[in-house]
Design goal:
The protein has 2 helices and 4 strands. The chain is of the alpha+beta class and 83 residues long.
C-alpha cells in the first residue's frame, strides 16, 4: 500500500468535512481549523502581512491541512495588481 501524498490527503480531509473556515477578512486574513488523522485540531490560514500560508502542525512546507484550505479559498491579489 502506497503512502498518501499531501495533495491527496488534503482532498480527503476536505471531503471528510475536517476543515472549518472560521474567518475571512477584507484584509485577506484567513483563519481555519482542520482536524488531522490523529484527532488533533490545527489552526491554519493565510497571513496577508507576510503573504504566507501557515499551519500549527509539525510538517515542513505546505501540509495537507493547508492544501485542503487552498482548495476552497485563494490568497488575495494585491489591489494594485488588479487594474
Amino acid at each position: 500500500m502506497s503512502r498518501e501524498n499531501a495533495q491527496a490527503k488534503g482532498r480527503r480531509l476536505l471531503t471528510e468535512g475536517r476543515l472549518r473556515v472560521l474567518r475571512i477578512e477584507r484584509s485577506g486574513l484567513i483563519v481555519a481549523e482542520c482536524r488531522g488523522d490523529s484527532g488533533e485540531v490545527y489552526t491554519l490560514g493565510f497571513e496577508p502581512m507576510w503573504g504566507q500560508w501557515r499551519c500549527t502542525c509539525e510538517a515542513k512546507g505546505r501540509c495537507s491541512h493547508i492544501i485542503a484550505l487552498m482548495l476552497v479559498t485563494t490568497a488575495p491579489v494585491a489591489e494594485s495588481a488588479v487594474a
